[in-house]
Amino acid sequence: MATVKITVRPNGPYRVEGPEGAIELIDPAGNKHDLTGKPAFSLCRCGGSVNKPFCDGTHSKIGFQGAELAVKKVEGS
Question: CA distances (Å), 44 to each of 4, 9, 73, in order?
Fold first, then answer.
């Protein structure tokens, strides 16, 4: 079985990496995204991308903070 790696980038997207053909990305309607030639891609986590579900860098423009950082700030850590 192929290894797929998902990395949570601090205050950024989910980075998904794996051998071509090893990853299927399905939209809410059940349609598959064509990932041909994309052994790695980033998924939007901030909700601001105009190219959802893929990241377009909007997180850096809107000051997105990942939940893990937001929780630490609320807890006073």
Answer: 18, 11, 22
- CATH class of residue range 5-75: alpha beta
Q: Can you give the pTM of this predicted structure?
A: 0.80
Per DSSP, helices labelled H in the chain are 58-62, 67-75
- Amino acid (1-letter code) at residue 48: G
Nearest Cα residue to 45 out of 15, 77, 70: 15
Residue range 10-24: average pLDDT?
93
How many helical (H) and strand (E) elements, i.e. helices and strands, does the chain have? 2, 3
Q: Give the position of tokens 């980075």.
A: 15
Regarding predicted confidence, which is higher, 12 or 2?
Answer: 12
- Contacts for 47 with CB less than 8 Å, ≥ 6 apart: none
